[in-house]
Structures are given as structure tokens and as C-alpha cells.
Write a structure and sequence with these properties.
mainly alpha, 2 domains, 0% strand
Length: 124
Amino acid sequence: MLENYLPVLLQVLIAGGFAGATLLISVLLGKAAARNRVKDSAYECGMVPVGEGQSRFSVKFYIVAMLFVLFDIEVVFLYPWAVIFKDYVAIHGTAIFWSALCFVTVLFIAYAYAWKKGALDWKH
């Protein structure tokens, strides 16, 4: 039984040996760079980094991202439903249609709510 795991063990040993050898060679052959203020500063495409490291995003950005995820998930769940719909209806009846209609109705209500609150208004 253990002989079946020999190729896996051999592959793990070779991968680990390669990773360790690569790190060891880079330490032995690599030069330690002289540290100074210029070398330790952040590289910004040749520009001197001035100001805050990260600017603040508008809340609108996060709302749009959440709406994208919401409607992206809708497509992820509806695609497999559409693939099996015809066969499922032939065997089990129309229950699959009504469950999907309820799902889409909830998502439509969420879309209408987001539209009413102005989450989809790109001008502001």
C-alpha cells in the first residue's frame, strides 16, 4: 500500500529540494545591497513620492462594487438553472420555474431599491 505513495513522496521531496536549493543559492551568490535613503524609498515611476500613500475612495465606489457582486451572483445562479430547466420540467413539473421566478423577483426588488436610492446615478 505504501508503494503507491512513493511517487507523491518523491515529487514532494524534489519540489522541496528545488525550493530550498534555489533559496540557498540566491543567498550565497547574491550581493547584499548597500542600504541608503534613496534605495529604501518607494519607487514611483521616477517621481519623488510626496503626500499620502493611498488616497481615499468614495463610498460610491464600494456601493457600485457591492451592486456588481449582487448582480454577478444572480447570473452565476441562473446559468445552471437555465441549463437543467428543460429536463427538470419534464421530470418534476414547474416548481423550478416558480422558485427561479421568486429569486429573480427578490433581485428585481433589490435593483429597484438601489435605483430609487440613487446608487446607480453616475453623475454624483
